[in-house]
Specification:
By secondary structure, this protein is α/β, with parallel strands linked by helices. The strands form two sheets. It has a seven-stranded mixed beta sheet, sandwiched between helices. It has a six-stranded parallel beta sheet with strand order 7-12-11-8-9-10, sandwiched between helices. Strand 11, helix 9 and strand 12 form a beta-alpha-beta unit. Helix 1 crosses helix 10 and helix 8 crosses helix 9.
Length: about 280
């Protein structure tokens, strides 16, 4: 499997036991992965951050580890773990990157590598409202959206736009997506034009979202439960205040449970400390 390996930042040349005590592989192109990498940098732990796209690499910022760019399947992950002598994997991928998390889990089981999963805290139960509809799938979200007016604002990203378009015939789709040429091209290939594409990078404040709703006048908003980091409540609250129904696709179940499921910065810091102690024993 072909892949691109790009180096971003630098690893200190100072020789320390910590830097040589096995490699760590972090998955994720989000702010979650970035702060985990910063914690690893503080502890002088050697690691690689794996992201799917160049956009994910750019969001990593000035981290000290290596970055590999490219999508990867189970076999590719397993090969990487073996060839790079990885002994700890941290899955900090997007909460909805279910296939990637499944591939990571299988690869770690095959190779016998410890896997931790960082999952940002859910805000799903922080708000209840008669116009807030919580569903488990894209298909269920579209079924609910069909009961409302023609203008559907999607704040679910670009990956599933084609599926939404197919499941919402006759609707006018308004897609809020990342402002990259590749994503815009995907939108245009689906027939979405300048009146349908809102190309901006989030997360957005409640006030910004309110202005967006006032401008776009959607009949319904479909979104995901992205936690505070993804601005979930800031998306939903102003819509409900305008009597705009919101359909929320809930998260997939995590692949990792127990002590290896990390849900805060403190959890990550404690797990890093424990990993260092395990390496010394």
């Amino acid at each position: 499997m072909s892949e691109t390996l790009s180096l971003v930042g630098r690893i200190s040349e100072a020789s320390s036991d910590t830097m040589n005590r096995g490699a760590v592989l972090v998955f994720g192109g989000t702010s979650d992965a970035r702060f985990i990498c910063q914690i690893l940098d503080e502890q002088r732990i050697s690691y690689t951050l794996s992201v799917a796209t160049a956009v994910g690499a750019s969001l990593a910022g000035d981290i000290g580890g290596k970055i590999r760019v490219g999508r990867i399947d189970t076999d590719g992950i397993a090969d990487w773990l073996v060839s790079n002598a990885v002994n700890w994997v941290i899955d900090a991928s997007h909460p909805y990157a279910e296939l990637l998390s499944q591939n990571i889990t299988r690869a770690c089981e095959i190779v016998g590598v410890t896997l931790s999963r960082y999952q940002r805290r859910s805000e799903l139960n922080d708000l209840e409202h008669p116009l807030l509809h919580k569903v488990a799938s894209l298909q269920a979200a579209c079924a609910v959206a069909q009961t409302f007016g023609p203008r559907v604002l999607l704040t679910t990203g670009s990956k599933e736009l084609a599926a939404y378009q197919q499941a919402l015939p006759g609707k006018t789709l308004l897609a809020r997506v990342l402002p990259t040429s590749e994503v815009i091209a995907e939108c245009e290939a689906l027939g979405l034009g300048v009146d349908n594409i809102i190309a901006l990078r989030g997360p957005f404040s409640s006030e910004f979202n309110a202005a967006t709703y006032d401008f776009c006048a959607p009949d319904v908003v479909i979104t995901k439960e992205s936690g505070a980091e993804g601005g979930y409540l800031d998306k939903v609250t102003p819509a409900l205040a305008r009597n705009i129904p919101c359909v929320v696709v809930t998260r997939p179940q995590p692949q990792v449970f127990g002590p290896e499921l990390l849900e805060s910065r403190e959890d990550v810091s404690r797990r890093v400390t424990r990993w260092l102690q395990e390496r010394k024993s």
